[in-house]
Design brief:
Layout lengths: L1 E5 L24 E9 L4 H8 L8 E7 L4 E6 L3 E5 L7 H10 L3 E4 L10 E5 L10 H4 L7 E5 L2 E6 L2 E10 L5 H12 L18 E6 L2 H16 L11 E6 L7 H11 L7 E7 L2 E7 L5 E3 L2 E3 L13 H7 L1 H19 L2
Parallel strand pairs: 2-6
Antiparallel strand pairs: 1-7, 2-10, 3-4, 3-13, 4-9, 5-8, 7-8, 9-10, 11-12, 13-14, 15-16
């Protein structure tokens, strides 16, 4: 899944006719109301457990965490959401909606830090029409692309902790009543500051690799043949692993995310993310920000391959033909993608 956090800056783009869901009426002059409150310093795990609280119905939350930067962004609920069908234009299809949402923004309280998002843009894997198989089936029910303005966002950044409540008001004359409601919600944030629940004891797991071994070996052989024929220059092989708790209970996304944060606590640039909807949650960690877009500046820290530690890591990488070739492919791919924009 691709996940992007969006601030309250207008964007550009065209709206495809297929965009649907609980989006504001076209031609309306609504207002996005945001209420900001500063909170006492809280650990990031506190915000995570608040956002992924299983008692919330329905459970809708997003997480973006950069452990080495002590940056935690947790969105919960949905003030506005819209989906776009699968296809190469799915992101452009939501761009115009984002622009219209942020045309008029009313903020009550202190200025909101620029890194705190007003919306999340997400996209599932395997969104290409016509694909099939177990990996594709796992994404049934997830939108190919979704823009969501959370009803609440809790954050920790630069040692500061805060909360932002959000609501879309179609009729600007109703903004005052909505603002009062958000202020009432802000007065009940004691749950954010409660004690952390006790940790869960380890449980036994059942493991199932997908596809099965014979099918996997056949795919590996086909990959080798494809590379030998020169049809591809690089191919990354990956196999799915399905885990089930032997006690029959559901997995806790908060526990898994906490472990991921612990494992990446000392890895510069690492990102831990999650997107929860109903009874499902997609979560993971990346050692690299694939790209970061701010205003008109794009930066990337794309990586390729792994290598053992070396006294002079820079020279070791430069002297290794395989590593240079792998990174060269990444650089070429980035240049090609940017050249087409």
């Amino acid at each position: 899944m691709i996940q992007e956090v969006l601030n309250n800056s207008p964007g550009e783009g065209s709206l495809a006719s297929e965009v649907c869901a609980q989006e504001p009426r076209r031609g309306g002059h609504g207002v996005l109301v945001r209420v900001h409150r500063l909170l006492p310093a809280l650990p990031g795990l506190q915000l995570l457990r608040w956002g992924a609280d299983p008692s919330a119905e329905p459970l809708i939350f997003s997480l973006w965490c950069e452990p080495t930067q002590d940056l935690w962004l947790v969105g919960r609920g949905a003030a506005v959401s819209a989906e776009a069908p699968a296809g190469e234009q799915r992101f452009l299809a939501l761009s115009d909606l984002r622009s219209r949402l942020f045309e008029q923004v009313h903020v009550a309280g202190p200025p909101i830090p620029s890194e705190v998002p007003a919306a999340w843009l997400t996209s599932r894997f395997h969104s290409t029409p016509g694909l099939s198989g177990a990996a594709v089936a796992a994404w049934q029910g997830w939108p190919s692309a979704q823009l969501r303005v959370p009803a609440e966002v809790a954050y920790r950044s630069g040692g500061r902790t805060g909360w932002v409540g959000q609501a879309w008001v179609e009729d600007p004359s109703e903004a005052r009543a909505v603002l009062d409601r958000l202020n009432q919600r802000a007065a009940t944030l004691g749950a954010l500051q409660g004690p952390l629940p006790p940790d869960e004891a380890p449980v036994a797991l059942e493991r199932e690799a997908l596809p099965e071994r014979e099918r996997w070996l056949d795919l590996v052989e086909r990959a080798r043949e494809t590379l030998a024929e020169g049809e591809l220059r690089k191919l990354v092989l990956a196999r799915a692993l399905r885990l089930r708790r032997q006690d029959g209970r559901s997995f806790s996304p908060t526990r898994a995310l906490e472990r991921l944060v612990e494992r990446h606590a000392d890895q510069p640039g690492a990102i831990v993310f999650a997107e929860g909807a109903g009874g499902a949650c997609f979560l993971g960690a990346s050692p690299e920000p694939l790209f970061r877009l701010s205003e008109r500046r794009l930066t990337t820290q794309a990586l390729a391959g792994t290598a053992p530690a070396h006294q002079d890591p820079e020279q070791a990488l430069l002297a290794d033909p395989k590593t240079r070739r792998e990174h060269g492919l990444v650089v070429d791919a980035i240049r090609g993608a940017l050249a087409s924009r």
